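My convention is simple: the sequence line spells out the residues, with the fold written below as integer tokens. I include a record here:
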Amino acid sequence: MAANETEVNNIAGVEATVNRWIVDYYSHLALDFFKNKKYAEFCGIRDVLQSVLVRPLESSDVTQTKIRVLQFLSRINDGEHLGEINRGFHVCLLVSLFVFFL
């Protein structure tokens, strides 16, 4: 029984790592689509990422920032709540946005 439990834990760990790689890849792809004004493709990648984010995900120091940047760009693309200020929105995230677009 212990061997099966270890195998299940290893599979879960592998899935979390692979999902982080998927988020890394697709977040860069989504940024490129947004920069190149390919908004339909951007939305398609955003939808793929939403399905990955409900699975186990290994977190890195920039994963949360990538997700927040994509959420911000999605709001711009969708034209939602553009005049509202989100109190949880950190200044460092806005600085990160400038770095992505330079």
Remarks:
- Residues 6 and 12 are 10 Å apart (CA to CA).
- DSSP finds four helices and no strands in the chain.
- The chain has one domain: 2-101.
- Residues 2-101 form a domain with the Serine Threonine Protein Phosphatase 5, Tetratricopeptide repeat fold (CATH 1.25.40.210).
